[in-house]
UniProtKB/TrEMBL annotation:
Keywords from the UniProt entry: ATP-binding, Cell membrane, Membrane, Nucleotide-binding, Translocase, Transport
Entry protein name: ABC transporter ATP-binding protein
Function: Probably part of an ABC transporter complex. Responsible for energy coupling to the transport system.
Single Gene Ontology MF annotation: ATPase-coupled transmembrane transporter activity
Pfam families, alphabetized: ABC_tran
Amino acid sequence: MHLIETRNLSHVYRGNVAALSGVNFVAERASRIAVIGANGAGKSTLFKHFNGLLKPASGEVLIRGEPITKENLREIRKIVGIVFQNPDDQIFSPTVEQDVAFGPMNLGLDDETVAHRVDAALALLDIEHLRERVPHHLSGGEKKRVAIAGVIAMEPQVLVLDEPTAGLDPQGVASLVEFVNTLPQKYGMTVIFSTHHVELVPEVADYIYVMDQGKIAAKGSIDDIFARQELLVRTRLEVPTIPRLIATLRDNGIDVDMAYTFDGAKRSLLDAYARRA
């Protein structure tokens, strides 16, 4: 039984605009999954089906083997938490503390449990110092952390992040990567995120779905996807700098192992240098 599964999922917006077509997607427990694709590929629409924000035109969405219904929608939203691209879409309370408490309160938890969850989420996101601040006076990166904390406080099994690095500076991106990577190992949480910035993917994903025009164009491991540079070009995505550099070195006769991250490239180049010495 998969944690999340879609079967031949399709969605049509008003005006007969097909946003998803025959999407088959699977997420397992404690996994890190990237959904990559150009703007308009259908990533956000897919995510909104994971906790019942949208209903399929055809096909189905299963959470822990059960289809989403009106009767289990509240339970589904305890399992799957979504953080939207624009944090202003989720932040509306007078203070950060109240905003983070909103989700747990709506789960019907007692005051003591709510307070504990809020404290834990603020600590995890390192925003305890923002507790009494007005959310809309915060920076973009701080708002994003507050939005994530509000979802984390509900203790979902799946955290879905829609374009999480949008609007973040390099330090904010690095901090987000570090945070995301703790969730599967330390908390057993599945993380699913979308991006059209493929340079980030090898740092935070074990498995990739490539979307194009509402369909799954490819799926596989980091090696499977990034070895297919023609696929990335065809789906209007940038080929990451590091594997592109390694491929160029190999084309020029340098015996170097493929790599996708800075640390991996460093090891590969040092190993290649040692073999030539």
